[in-house]
Amino acid sequence: MGFFLSIIALILFVFVYILDEITVLVIDVKNRKWFKTTAKRKFKKAFKVDVFANNLFPTFWNSCLSKGGYQFGRFGETLSSVFGKKRAEKSLNWLGWTVSILIDAIDFTKWKQGGHCAASIMTDEAIESFLK
User: Fold this and answer.
1) Could you tell me if 110 and 81 are in contact, meaning their C-beta atoms sit under 8 angstroms apart?
2) Is the pTM of this model over 0.85?
3) Is the pLDDT of residue 104 over 70?
4) Which of 56, 74, 129 minimizes the C-alpha distance to 86?
């Protein structure tokens, strides 16, 4: 039963996410603040979904992308931060390295800082501040 409930919850999450995006688009276009407002909201949403995914699926991340060492799953930490830490300790498997390189390639704004994953490494204080 729990398996089906978790699938339904994730489907509802995606459905509400899409409805929220449409609602924000309509309201912000009407108020002529579309680009400025949506850029901030999208970053905040992406950050929260990133933290959520790290915390919700640690078994998947650890078994499919890791060779041990630092673990995925700490609430408050982004996947990018974990990828950065695991790359530093060389504990990603080939698939984990591939995913982290793709993340780095997509965020070209962080190339001069060693890539997105290296630039996104969070300190314990930053992770704890997310929880407040």
Assistant:
1) no
2) no
3) yes
4) 74
